[in-house]
């Protein structure tokens, strides 16, 4: 019930999320910044270019809503890396964004395993980077029990739903994908054995030949992931390609939306 309620809020746009939770000093980030991301120095924060919204205290640690937003006159974000400092695999996702998503208004759901900064480092072109983030109080998101049994997982994995509707002068698309996104840290609730990691690691969403966004992901994207984003429709069908770590691939095309 809790998961369903939060999902409903996310898909509806939800109420404004609390923003009294800025990034905290993090020894973990000091290490990750250079050893994992190859950044010699810290990256400036500038909410006039990019902001990240996330709740101060997560309602459900396995489906924490995170939203990337830009003002109308901000420079375009070409790529972004989402990092959850204290997760077992801190780099949660690497995104590429197409021009139709600018200015960025992009939501996803992630797992947060312990109290942690959740941050995004974005590339705005010509070697320029900007960082945004929030401190989130959550615990156990990466090992939280899966919401479905194995039989249901097998029956529904790879199913997709797409919807798009005008909102505030743009179109907002919502893509829902059925996949357990097993983190490798969960247990089967029947056998009590560890469930091997099995998650979506690549995703492409296009309208016609134009890229809307691409994703390379790790274990931190939630079960049955949902992506909600504002975009400019070009009148072409929406093509979605999903690949997972077991070598499965699913392709689906949804009818065009007029501008």
Automatic annotation (TrEMBL):
Keyword Signal: yes
InterPro entries associated with the record: Fuse-rel_SoxYZ, Ig-like_fold, Ig_E-set, SoxY, SoxY_sf, SoxZ_dom
Ranges where the Sulphur oxidation protein SoxZ domain occurs: 174-254
Highest taxon of source: Bacteria
Residue span(s) of domain Ig-like SoxY: 42-142
One Pfam match: SoxY
Keyword line: Signal
Signal peptide region: 1-18
Protein name: Quinoprotein dehydrogenase-associated SoxYZ-like carrier
Organism listed in the record: Paracoccus subflavus
């Amino acid at each position: 019930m809790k998961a369903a309620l939060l999902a409903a809020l996310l898909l509806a746009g939800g109420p404004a999320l609390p923003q009294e939770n800025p990034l905290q000093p993090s020894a973990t980030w000091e290490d990750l910044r250079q050893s994992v991301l190859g950044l010699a120095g810290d990256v400036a924060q500038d909410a006039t270019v990019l902001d990240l919204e996330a709740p101060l205290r997560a309602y459900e640690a396995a489906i924490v809503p995170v939203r990337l937003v830009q003002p109308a006159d901000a420079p375009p974000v070409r790529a972004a890396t989402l990092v959850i400092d204290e997760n077992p695999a801190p780099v949660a996702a690497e995104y590429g964004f197409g021009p139709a998503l600018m200015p960025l208004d992009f939501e996803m759901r992630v797992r947060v395993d312990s109290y942690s900064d959740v941050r995004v480092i974005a590339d705005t072109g010509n070697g320029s980077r900007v960082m945004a983030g929030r401190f989130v109080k959550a615990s156990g998101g990466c090992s939280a029990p899966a919401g479905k049994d194995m039989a249901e997982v097998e029956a529904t994995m790879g199913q997709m739903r797409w919807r798009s509707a005008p909102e505030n002068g743009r179109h907002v698309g919502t893509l829902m994908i059925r996949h357990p996104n097993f983190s490798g840290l969960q247990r089967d609730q029947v056998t009590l054995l560890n469930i091997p990691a099995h998650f979506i690691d690549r995703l492409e969403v296009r309208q016609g030949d134009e890229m809307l966004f691409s994703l390379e992901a790790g274990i931190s994207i939630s079960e049955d992931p949902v992506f909600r984003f504002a975009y400019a429709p070009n009148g072409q069908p929406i093509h979605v390609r999903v690949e997972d770590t077991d070598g499965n691939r699913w392709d689906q095309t949804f009818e065009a939306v007029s501008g």
